Amino acid sequence: MNLNQIRQDTKGLSDNKIFLNNAGSSLMPKVVVESMVDYFHQEEQFGGYEVANRTATLLEEFYEETAKLINCKLSNIAFATSATDAYTKALSSIVFKEGDVIITTVDDYISNQITFISLQKKLNIKVIRTKNLSDNELDLEDLENLIKKHNPKLIAVTHIPTNSGLIQNVEGVGKICRQYDVLYLVDACQSVGQMVVDVEKIDCDFLTATGRKFMRGPRGTGFLYVSDRVLEQNYAPLLLDMRGANWTEYDDYELFKTAKRFEHWEISYGSLLGFMEAVKYANNIGLDNIENYNKNLSGKLRENLKNSGFNVWDWGNKLSSIVTFCEPNGELENIQKVLKENNIFFSVTYKNSALIDFTNKNVNGIVRLSPHYFNTTEEIETVSEILKNSLK
Ligand SMILES: Cc1ncc(COP(=O)(O)O)c(C=O)c1O
Prior knowledge:
By secondary structure, the chain is an alpha/beta fold. The chain folds into 2 domains: 123 residues, Aspartate Aminotransferase, domain 1, CATH 3.90.1150; 255 residues, Aspartate Aminotransferase, domain 2 (3-Layer(aba) Sandwich), CATH 3.40.640. 43% of the residues lie in helices and 15% in strands. Helix 4 crosses helix 11. The radius of gyration is 21 Å and the shape is globular. It comes from Chryseobacterium glaciei. GO terms for molecular function: transferase activity. Keywords: Pyridoxal phosphate, Transferase.
């Protein structure tokens, strides 16, 4: 990994800020921004349809690069405008009936939980959450028992929650889902881009991701992976448009074969192109390199914070590049003040975004630092030292 080159490619670092909010919205490499600016200039000259036609081959590379990123075929990839867009389209393709069961975890993302509760209220389905093991990972034995007891329609697991460093054992869940033939949806919004994510190993039916976080793409982008298994069974979004099907009869249509049937016809091709460049950029560095590097940085940061006396809230067997903490008395105010004063970028998560996890941990909120491969060990040491001094 050529860190100097990577930092030169990241114009946002030129004013000496320390950027540690990659789990929020990261800094785009300049090639991503330049590709979009150039595309929009072309649209200014020729109009969107003409430019999309002229650029068709390049735009298709989005599917190739994304398929390479998560180890699948390009026919399994759909562009999405956010992780939530991908998630809700996947969910909408499952026909839920009264009494159906969704099994999820206590650590799944706030919007997923709200969507499940909405389905529970509107369609009378049942939402059940697995227990956690003592190390905070979801309990696979409990999951298996719940499957046997409730015969669920769907298992939904967030790979890395927004509010803690936990990495769930999504491969372990995948094996159980296959054994019992249950649909399996993985929210990989925080994992894609920061570590190797391999859909063949996870063996899921749907996987969702966003562009702007660890992928370093533009806002308004994301993708959905759809397995062959599900495509062959004609799963498609509930509210399909002409991107998804061919209108063959007055009252009938024929679904298109690939995961593109989960897209809408109208999208921002300039943003898709920018996202393609971001995926290509990550692929060129190599996700295994990124994962190893990130593990080192976040491990070091966590250790420093603990040694300085902060309460670090990342519980799990395997931890990610999301580091969450507060002062020993639970306070967040002073940490935020000091970070802002020192031009260090971070984010804060409050209890309503992680209701069950933070209730269990008995915290009202946490500060989140999320290093990525363009950060240096020196930056981690600087931030650790500044925070350590803030406690005195
Ligand atoms: C774990 C997780 N899932 C889903 C999302 C939603 O992503 P988007 O805002 O792109 O829909 C987020 C955003 O923070 C997230 O952290």
